[in-house]
Each structure stands twice: as C-alpha cells, then as structure tokens.
Design brief:
This protein is mainly alpha-helical. The chain has a domain of 56 residues: DNA polymerase, domain 1. Helix content is 52%, strand content 4%. The longest helix has 17 residues. It is globular. It starts with a helix and ends in a 17-residue tail after the last strand. 14% of the residues are buried.
Length: 99
C-alpha cells in the first residue's frame, strides 16, 4: 500500500510540474529546455532575444525567434508557457484602423 501512495504522490507532482505556468520572459534555461518542441538551440535563441528586450506578446516572440510560428506557439501555450501573462490566442486583439 505504501508503494501505491508514493507512486500517486509522484504522479500528482509530475502532473503539477507539467501544467505549471512559465513566463517566457522569466523562465530559466532548464525550464524552457524541458518543454516539448524546444531544444537547446531554440532555448538559447529565446534567451538571447529576451536579453535584448523582453517579449511584448506572442506576435513579438514569433517575429524574433526563428522556428516559433503559430503552431509552435500554440503547443508551448498548451504546456503552460505565457508571454506577459497571456497564453497564445488569448492576447488582446489589435485595434482595427478605420478606413
């Protein structure tokens, strides 16, 4: 019985870690590198770009980091990655210009 309880606890902890929110502007390299779809090269590109200036939103990330497009942004967002507290697709819409 003890084994079952500790396995359940470990499972809950791992699930909690997998769904923890991570801000792209504050995440440590190891946090980013552990995400599905990000390897060391893309993690370094993210870290380098955010050192220049923090990301404003997901559009900014996709413009500045080669290899992150809408599909990758959606996948990262599903894993709990946020930019300025916003998930991908949750960012406020840009005001439309009147003709």
């Amino acid at each position: 019985m003890r084994h079952t309880i500790s396995t359940g606890i470990v499972s809950m902890l791992l699930t909690g870690i997998a769904w923890a929110q991570v801000d792209l502007n504050k995440a440590q390299e190891i946090e980013l590198d552990g995400l599905n779809g990000l390897g060391p090269t893309m993690t370094r590109a993210i870290m380098n770009e955010r050192q220049k200036t923090p990301f404003r939103d997901w559009t900014d990330v996709m413009q500045r980091v080669k290899g992150i497009g809408p599909k990758k942004a959606a996948s990262l967002s599903e894993q709990g990655v946020r930019v300025q507290g916003q998930s991908y697709g949750q960012a406020p819409a840009s005001p439309m210009k009147k003709p």
